[in-house]
Amino acid sequence: MINAIIKMLGVSKNSYWNYKKQQRPIILFLEKYFTDKDLEEFLTTGKVSRLESQKLDDDFKDLILDDHMLHNVKFKLRTLSGGTFKMLEILQDALKDIDPNDEEFTQENSKQRLIDRIYAVEKNSMFKTKAKKEGVAKWIKDYLSKAEVYAMVKYPQTIIKLTSNKEKE
Question: What pTM was estimated for this model as a whole?
Answer without folding.
Answer: 0.58
